[in-house]
Design goal:
The chain is α/β, with parallel strands linked by helices. The chain has one domain: Spore Coat Polysaccharide Biosynthesis Protein SpsA, Chain A (Alpha-Beta Complex). The protein contains ten helices and eleven strands. The strands form three sheets. Strands 3-2-1-4-9-6-10 form a seven-stranded mixed β-sheet, with helices on both faces. Helix 6 packs across helix 8, helix 7 packs across helix 9 and helix 8 packs across helix 9.
């Protein structure tokens, strides 16, 4: 089974040893190389990385990688067997090629375990965390270009959980179908939303929107998938993250 897991990196970092992991320098446009494949080679959207984030890696893989299964993970975030506390144990828990093959022999798609918002829907969560015009434009594009997806969009937006990070592994035919849909929608939204004046964080709008589109596509296409644990390799300040969430919830994004 030929599996290519793209690892999106913007700086040198630890990498798993299995040859199925394919390191790719993202946002490489006009940047110094650090010795791996770059997302500005061949057909690419590397220059859009400040707004599309890890999606520039997905676009590059779509245009350049031929494999039975194609996936994406981040240099600090991987699919793992289970959550571990110590850093070295976290690295050891990253799925091996043999473990990926076992999963993919049973399911055509693997995605992260769902994240729960608990006290708000996906739509409200987006509105509280980001500029709402991005999601409103996304909804309008779906209504115009993919009306058959609207029922799934509404269903997903009313959920209080989502599959985040733009991480997944997909069988090649599904990957091609999803990439065609994803970039067709996002490039159209890009034409309609003026992000002049957005902060560096908010300028990552298309990465945020793509996180919502994955669940819409999976539901609309009735795709069989397997949820898998995802581990962040560095410690996170959960107190700070929780406080920021509550501030957005009760005071608004600003």
């Amino acid at each position: 089974m030929n599996i290519k897991m793209i690892v999106a990196l913007h700086k040198p970092y630890w990498l798993p040893k299995d040859d199925c992991y394919f390191p790719l320098q993202v946002g490489a446009y006009n940047k110094e190389s650090f010795g791996i494949k770059r997302d500005d080679e061949g057909e690419n959207i590397s220059e859009k990385n400040p707004n599309f984030c890890e999606l520039t890696a997905l676009y590059w893989a779509w245009k350049h990688i031929d494999a039975d299964f194609i996936g994406l993970c981040h240099y600090r975030r991987y699919f793992t067997r289970r959550e571990r506390f110590r850093l070295e144990k976290r690295k050891e828990a990253v799925l091996s090629k043999a473990e990926l093959e076992k999963l993919l022999s049973k399911h055509p798609v693997v995605i992260p375990k769902k994240r729960h918002h608990f006290i708000e829907t996906n739509k409200n969560h987006y509105y509280h965390a980001h500029h709402r015009e991005g999601l409103d434009a996304l909804e309008a594009v779906l209504e115009e270009k993919y009306p058959e997806y609207i029922a799934s969009y509404n269903k997903v937006m009313e959920r209080t959980w989502a599959h985040l990070f733009n991480m997944f592994i997909m069988r090649k035919d599904y990957f091609n179908r999803y990439m065609t849909f994803l970039f067709d929608v996002l490039f159209e939204v890009e034409k309609r939303v003026d992000i002049t004046g957005y902060s560096v964080y908010e300028a990552r709008i298309f990465g945020f929107l793509a996180e919502r589109l994955l669940d819409v596509w999976l539901d609309a296409e009735n795709i069989d998938y397997k949820e898998q644990n995802v581990t962040f390799l560095e410690r996170q300040n959960w107190l700070k993250k929780g406080a920021n969430f509550l501030i957005r919830k009760f005071r608004g994004r600003g």
